[in-house]
Amino acid sequence: MECYKTSGVAANDGAPRQTGGNTLIFAKRLLFAFFLAGLPGFAAVAAEKVVVATARTISDAGLYMAMDNGWFQEEGLDVELVGFDTAAKMIAPLGRGDLDVGGGTVSAGLYNAVARGISLRIVADKGSIKPGYAYAGIVIRKDHVDGGRFKSLADLAGMKIAVVGKGTSNASALNEALKHGGLAWRDATPVELSFPQMVVALSNKAIDGAMMNEPTISQVVREGIAVKGADYNDFYPGQQTAVLIYSEKFATARREAAQKFMRAYIRGLRFYAGSLAGGRIAGANAERVIDILVRHTGVTDRDVYRQAAPSGVDPDGRIGASSLRNDLVLFKQEQLIDKPEMQVEDIVDMSFVEDALRVLGASAPEARAPIK
Asked: What letter does residue 155 receive in the DSSP assignment?
């Protein structure tokens, strides 16, 4: 686990803000606070600490945008980002209340944790498949494509395809790719590997293909190791790939702080969404968004962000519950859920999003994804 903390407010670079409030307003508030702090008998109120787990990936963009634009600070929150290498490792400290906020893919492990009494809540979108933004897909070894072994998803039969883990949304996407090719889950062999391990396994021809995200897809294509066989929009449009999670302690004992956090977070989602255009980070505030991503993710090559397909988000923070239900069907079929009666509704709480939207207002209709 790596802990790092970021604070401070970005200068106004002229990028359009997606919601109310801007750098000038924030600066005025700061000046007023400094004025009050100098008055006799005035005691400054300390910002409330919120500890947030992050995997330092592009799907954490909403968090980073809210952090670097000063929106958490505007809400009176002192946000500390704590790095984790997998979302699975966030579950226990979230359940204990050592972490307030986390996020990642919705897995069978999350449902099982809740079933065991570890109270967690999915509260908002963190990353999802949107039309034109193919940041996730299936890649196939280049020699299979060149030699004619792979022409369509029907040719996945008999192949070893890497997934990040059984009982994950990544594995569910493979299931949808198989169904799109007229195949069943058992017609291919899932192999559990991390994204870096997938690159090595493709190079060594130990696997035939992999379910990958950007920028790893661009890496294997650029190196001539694999070819993108299809993206999720071809076989699983609208999949909810990552979610924001609150600990029960944060959601209940500190509900006011949790509501403030959501308001700032949705402003961050909207700022990030404002950078998306033409399937790339190429919108009006793209360079500012890339600046922030370079600072937080550890990927310092700006061209990676300009060239790779970014993840989509719902600018209102709403999730695609229909895809979560579909994923859960597979998890139950594979007997990965400890309590078969578990439902998506048992772990989803949209009340924080709805409270935030009553303050911020809804985004433009054309910017919103359909909610099912």
From this structure: G
Residue 334's domain comprises: 2-130+239-367
Long-range contacts: 326-329, Cβ < 8 Å, 24+? 326/172, 326/176, 327/106, 327/169, 327/172, 327/239, 328/111
For the question of whether the overall pTM of this predicted structure is more than 0.85, the answer is no
Counting as low any pLDDT under 70, the low residues of the chain are 1-45, 364-372
3-state SS class at 138: strand
The SS3 assignment for 288 reads helix
Q: Over the chain, what is the mean pLDDT?
A: 87
Spatial contact of 240 and 125, defined as CB atoms under 8 Å apart? yes
Cβ neighbours around 244 below 10 Å, total = 28
Let me know whether 302 and 325 are in one domain.
yes
Which DSSP symbol is given to 310?
A: P
* pLDDT tens digits for range 298-309: 888 899 899 888
Same domain, 258 and 125: yes
What DSSP character marks residue 145?
Answer: H
Ramachandran category for residue 183: left, alpha or beta (phi over 0 → left; psi -120 to 50 → alpha): beta
Examine the domain organization and report whether 253 and 363 are in the same domain: yes
